[in-house]
Design a protein that fits this description.
8 helices; alpha/beta; about 25% helix; Collagenase (Catalytic Domain); about 25% strand; 10-stranded mixed beta sheet; globular; 3-stranded mixed beta sheet
Length: about 270
């Protein structure tokens, strides 16, 4: 069984309309995203330990279902530069290089999938088929899949969850219909999508206090593996109710620095 990260607007780790203490998924207003630690679910791997044991490079691998392709641009900028710059800045002090696809031609088209909504097991199966790395060598890989459907939680489709990270794994999912419902602006949708991706990668890499020890008092334990710094992408409401407000600097002045200094220091000190 696999655990998830999800972001929501409640106190959990889902990026959907709620955020839970151990889940993460990304949503808006009634949306959120984060990591999901459902009771009884045991991770099949420990990506954080494997990653910091010997990582020299990290490849972000992206796949998408027809009708759920990730945004490539916002206004006149390359959308995926947001992910590339932030993850590169986060890992640069450790000497870890990062590669991120920028164009759709560099990503995998999954075609039309048979189902409309997805369980943890569905997501793990799809993402593992894309994964090109064992993550035991120095070259590591994180997989992000974009789905034209919703996450199934407690047996029902959850239309507030933007994205999730399967806990303990390098596997992420973004739910395109939720991203598209988060704003009427395509540019904002693109940046909400990128903010969700960066947040979920942060969880996969051990933030906050999620395999990487917090070196200062910034772990918001009440809301799971999140940060108390309201200007950090790992702050729980920046993956939910306040995500539109959080991404405004990207639209206004092109600033793409999403991680706070506390989270950066944690990664550097690991």
């Amino acid at each position: 069984m696999v655990k998830l990260h999800k972001l929501n607007l409640r106190p959990n780790r889902y990026f959907y309309a709620s955020i839970n203490p151990i889940l993460c998924i990304l949503l808006l207003l009634s949306i959120s995203s984060c990591k999901d630690d459902d009771a009884g679910v045991v991770p099949e791997e420990d990506f954080v330990s494997d990653f910091y044991a010997n990582a020299s490079s990290l490849a972000i691998q992206v796949a998408y279902e027809d009708g759920a392709a990730p945004y490539i641009n916002y206004n006149t900028s390359d959308a995926w530069n947001v992910c590339r710059q932030n993850i590169t800045d986060l890992l640069a002090p450790r000497g870890i290089s990062v590669s991120v696809p920028i164009k759709l031609s560099e990503m995998t088209n999954l075609g039309v999938l048979e189902q409309n909504n997805y369980t943890r097991e569905n997501i793990a199966s799809l993402a593992n088929d894309i994964q090109q790395y064992t993550n035991k060598t120095a070259n590591k890989g994180i997989v992000i899949i974009f789905l034209n459907g919703y996450y199934i939680k407690d047996g029902k489709p959850e239309n507030r969850i933007l994205g999730i990270n399967l806990n303990g794994t390098p596997l992420l999912a973004i739910f395109k219909p939720v991203v598209e419902s988060a704003s009427n602006s395509k540019a904002e949708q693109a940046l909400i999508e990128q903010s969700t991706i960066v947040h979920e990668i942060g969880h996969a890499l051990g933030l906050v206090n999620n395999g990487v020890r917090a070196t200062s008092a910034h772990h918001d334990a009440e809301h799971g593996a999140h940060c108390t710094n309201t200007k950090c992408v790992m702050y729980w409401q920046n993956g939910g109710a306040k995500v539109q407000q959080f991404i405004q600097p990207l639209l206004v002045n092109g600033s793409v620095e999403l991680f706070g200094n506390q989270c950066k220091t944690d990664i550097k000190a690991k």
